Backbone:
């Protein structure tokens, strides 16, 4: 949608913010009361969306930077190994989380 250089100009940021806000707030009066009763934990939302937590992605990138000079394995093999560790760490965090265990019953494995 936008080039990944220098960021969008102010008027484009305002337009995007307006569109996203309109989508989020669509029919808000109908579902507003539900916001006080039902919420989703960050952990559950990430698992449902299939998005690896930012802390794991940061750890993964740091690991890749530290092993960049390792010539005994290929870059793709290092990336696969780092991603496997990220998924294993995420699975461990999800399995040991005390929040939203109902969601855990539906999505016990973060990798699927």
Residues:
């Amino acid at each position: 949608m936008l080039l990944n250089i220098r960021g969008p100009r102010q008027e484009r940021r305002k337009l995007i913010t307006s569109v996203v806000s309109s989508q989020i707030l669509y029919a808000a009066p109908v579902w507003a009361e539900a916001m006080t009763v039902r919420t989703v934990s960050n952990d559950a939302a990430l698992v449902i969306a299939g998005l690896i937590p930012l802390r794991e992605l940061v750890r993964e990138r740091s690991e890749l930077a530290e092993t960049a000079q390792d010539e005994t394995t290929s870059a793709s093999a290092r990336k696969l190994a780092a991603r496997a560790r990220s998924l294993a760490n995420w699975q461990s965090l999800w399995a040991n989380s005390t929040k939203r265990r109902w969601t855990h019953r539906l999505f016990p494995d973060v990798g699927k």
Summary: The mean pLDDT is 85. DSSP finds seven helices and no strands in the chain. Helices lie at 10-25, 28-31, 34-37, 42-49, 54-66, 75-96, 101-106. Residues 40-112 form one domain.
